[in-house]
Design brief:
With 146 residues, this protein is mostly helical. The chain is 82% helix and 0% strand.
C-alpha cells in the first residue's frame, strides 16, 4: 500500500493541496452547512438521515470531483477522467463507507455544528492518504491486475 518513490512528488502535493483549498473546502463548507440547516438536531433518525445523504449523494459527487480534478491537473482530458472515475470511484465510495459512516455518526450525534469541520478535517488527514494513493494510481495498473 505504501508507494516507494525515489524522490518527493511536489506536483502531487500541490494537486492534493489545491484540491482541498479550491474544491473540497468550499463545497464541504456549503454542503454540510446546508445539511445541518435542512436537518437540525441530533435525534437518531436525523443522524441516520444525514449519514445516508452524505454517503449516498455527496460521497459519489465528491469522488467524481476528486478524480476529475486530479486527472485534469495531471494533464488528462475527458476520456482519461471518465476512465479514472470508472476504474476507481467504486473503490473510493466503498472506502468512504468504512471511514465516514462511523465518523459521521459520531460527528452528527455529538460534535457541535461549529466544530464539525474541524472534526471532519482531522479524520480527513488520514483518509487523504488513501485518496492520494487511489487518485494518483495509473488506470493501466489496475487493468493489468484484473
Amino acid at each position: 500500500f505504501v508507494e516507494k518513490k525515489d524522490k518527493y512528488d511536489y506536483a502531487r502535493t500541490l494537486r492534493m493541496g489545491s484540491f482541498g483549498l479550491l474544491i473540497h473546502g468550499t463545497t464541504g463548507h456549503y454542503f454540510y452547512g446546508a445539511l445541518d440547516g435542512a436537518l437540525p438536531g441530533t435525534a437518531p433518525v436525523t443522524v441516520a438521515s444525514k449519514v445516508l445523504i452524505d454517503q449516498v449523494f455527496w460521497n459519489p459527487i465528491f469522488g467524481c470531483m476528486f478524480f476529475s480534478y486530479l486527472t485534469a491537473t495531471s494533464g488528462g482530458g475527458p476520456t482519461e477522467i471518465m476512465a479514472k472515475i470508472k476504474a476507481d470511484l467504486q473503490t473510493a465510495v466503498m472506502g468512504s463507507w468504512a471511514v465516514w459512516v462511523p465518523a459521521h455518526t459520531v460527528n452528527f450525534a455529538f460534535i457541535p455544528p461549529a466544530q464539525r469541520l474541524l472534526y471532519i478535517n482531522t479524520i480527513q488527514i488520514g483518509y487523504n492518504i488513501f485518496l492520494s494513493f487511489l487518485g494518483n494510481k495509473d488506470v493501466e495498473e489496475e487493468e493489468k491486475t484484473k
